[in-house]
């Protein structure tokens, strides 16, 4: 490839990266003209496992709330994105904590759903406990002579 083709390819790659960024992310890299430097800047800013990034994402997770009018599917996708970003920073949450955070992020109009899920979970655990405690053992046959 000659220099002109590399410049065209570099410009297209920079444009593609910028198209996939949010507005507030674009402003920090608007003047970058080389893909390698642009990518390195983004990587240093967003992929470092710094305390600031970890605290920012945790704050975002703990303050995450349902926006009225948004579909539940989009709400769950946004929630999963925050969790994936935290997972990239080696932050792990138990399944129960994730479920509790998601349920608490829902609007009051979904209160019946959270009650059902909580009660359903309690009833399910109670049923498992009862089943474990009352395991039926097969009876031995007595041979009669």
Structure keywords:
transmembrane helix; single chain; elongated; membrane; mainly alpha; 145 residues; Retrovirus-related Pol polyprotein from transposon TNT 1-94; transmembrane
Poorly predicted segments: 134-138
**What's the count of strands?**
0
Q: Please estimate the helix content.
A: 55-70%
Largest pleated sheet: none
Description:
This protein is mainly alpha-helical and 145 residues long. It has a domain at 1-47. The chain is built from 7 helices and no strands. The chain has helices spanning 3-19, 23-26, 35-46, 51-62, 72-88, 95-105, 111-133. Residues 134-138 have low confidence and may be disordered. This is Retrovirus-related Pol polyprotein from transposon TNT 1-94. Keywords: Membrane, Transmembrane, Transmembrane helix. The chain crosses the membrane at residues 112-131. Pfam families: Retrotran_gag_2.
Short structural summary:
Helix content is 66%, strand content 0%.
Q: How do the helices and strands line up, and which of them pair or pack?
A:
Blueprint: H1 3-19, H2 23-26, H3 35-46, H4 51-62, H5 72-88, H6 95-105, H7 111-133
Keywords: Membrane, Transmembrane, Transmembrane helix
Transmembrane segments: 112-131
Pfam family, one: Retrotran_gag_2
């Amino acid at each position: 490839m000659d220099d002109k083709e590399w410049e065209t390819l570099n410009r297209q790659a920079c444009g593609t990266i910028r198209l996939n960024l949010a507005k507030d992310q674009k402003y920090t890299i608007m003047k970058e003209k080389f893909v390698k430097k642009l990518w390195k800047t983004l990587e240093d800013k967003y992929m470092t496992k710094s305390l600031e990034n970890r605290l920012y994402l945790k704050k975002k997770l703990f303050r995450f709330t349902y926006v009225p009018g948004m579909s539940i599917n989009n709400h769950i996708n946004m929630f999963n994105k925050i969790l994936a970003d935290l997972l990239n920073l080696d932050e792990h949450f138990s399944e129960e904590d994730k479920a509790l955070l998601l349920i608490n992020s829902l609007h009051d109009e979904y209160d019946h759903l959270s009650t059902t899920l909580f009660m359903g979970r309690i009833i399910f655990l109670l049923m498992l406990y009862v089943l474990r405690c009352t395991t039926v053992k097969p009876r031995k046959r007595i041979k009669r002579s």
